[in-house]
Amino acid sequence: MTAPRHFLTLMDLSADEIRLLIDRAIELKAQWRAGNPQRSMEGKVLAMIFTKASTRTRVSFEAGMAQLGGSALFLSGQDTQLGRGEPIEDTARVISSMVDIVMIRTFAHADVETFAQHSRVPVINGLTDDYHPCQILADLQTFFEVRGDIQGKTVCWLGDGNNVCHSWMNAARQLDFEVVVACPEGYDPDPTLLGACCQWVRIERDPTRAVQGADLLVTDVWASMGQEAEQNQRAANLAPYQLNRSLLDLAAPDALYMHCLPAHRGEEISAELMDAPDNVIWQEAENRLHAQKALMELLIGG
Ligand code: CP
Ligand code: NVA
To answer: Is 290 a catalytic residue?
Structure first.
């Protein structure tokens, strides 16, 4: 039996594969909208394990699998034996003997790695404390749809140097574009990852300098899942990094802006930008569906 392909970070694909996947996602979206969905997952079963909340990730994987002719199982950590202490290794051996592909959203990235090491089938990271690679596939698809290739462009990340920021950093080294991370001291991305990405990523403390000339501004919540107790302190420290009209006006004239959602209007993004009619945030959210269908095809089908 050949070893399964996993998708735990964006580094698990080659740059060529990422570009092919984006093309395929755009194609799947067009076919689906034309009422001609593909049935490439006929008879396949996806198991989805969630120990954190989700709207988009759950709905996009479940709907995506159904649209491709397969089916999906929702497994919450609490309702499985995982919640009562069954080892991840044992859970991985059993679940992967019964399904064709697994998606996991949880806290420790090491838990997804452990699951993958003991799984017979592909494992997808649906978000950990460290990475959210599926989100960046959809974000890249959106940029390609609206502006074309991202190579050589500049992306400015505003706010917490978190899991979504880390996946943007990986995307930068894969597809060769610049990421300027605008954050205060204490909110930097992981230093080891920063070292690995230093050719493509730099930190800029002053948000007004960071956004200058950027082709895309991206932000995310200030307190990620698991950090709720720090919300007030984080909101105070990160307030100057809010994605709003005055920062957008300093970016490139046709700059786009994105947010993975859920968003907090008036915190990391202004209500005005969230509700602007020309924003691509809703397109970005919809693209989770198509990017992940292309991802499942790639991992299952080769
Ligand atoms: N962006 C994202 O992953 O959304 P959910 O938390 O709703 O899945
Ligand atoms: N950084 C956020 C992303 C939510 C989709 C979190 O981890 O909660």
So the answer is: no
